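Batch manifest line 200
LIGAND: flavin mononucleotide
JOB: complex structure
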Amino acid sequence: MRQAAVVVLVLMGCVALSTPCARAVESGAGVRVLVAYYSMTGHTEKMAQGVAKGAREVAGAMVSLKRVEEVTADDLFESDAVIVGSPVYWSNMAGPVKTFFDNWQLKFGVFPEFKMRNKVGAAFATGGQVSAGKEVTMLTMLAAMLGNQMIVVSGGGAFGASATTEGNSPGIDEQELAGARALGQRVAEVAAIMKKGAKD
Ligand SMILES: Cc1cc2nc3c(=O)[nH]c(=O)nc-3n(C[C@H](O)[C@H](O)[C@H](O)COP(=O)(O)O)c2cc1C
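JOB STATUS: finished
ARTIFACT:
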């Protein structure tokens, strides 16, 4: 009877926390996660810090946090996973983030070898308005990753983590930060599963 109660409590906990109880990743040892972002007024940077914190929750994961302008070829190619964040500019990624993706080829020469192939990719975004381009922004960043034959995943939301930063929802609130952490954690977990699978 007591055992049954424990099982029910655990299941209730899974539902309440919306956590993936089906699979727990024991170790992210050796997994490198790069969180790269652009931010003019600090909102996307705060989300980026949340994403990095979530990735660090996977034991052993090595996480670096950089502005897109500072990312080097080595940063990219040594990573097992890359999570890119942008503010919404006119319903799309901001110019510096597009330049960052363009530089994968123009500066770093990812093509024709597809040097980012099979790395895990994900996206996050902040936008001033509730419905004015956050999902398009994430999808266009994911499209750039798909074009590079990366394995894109979501987390914190259907297309990645996002936050509304103006009007009735100024700044980044706790729920939005929790979404950012969930994205970082999921990406590190998937990267760990991929890395382990490649070794087996
Ligand atoms: C040039 C420009 C265009 C913008 N376009 C949009 C837009 O289309 N949709 C939206 O929701 N917010 C838009 N915003 C608001 C920013 O996305 C929002 O303030 C964002 O959180 C800023 O991020 P940051 O603090 O990291 O710079 C725009 C801001 C700028 C400067």
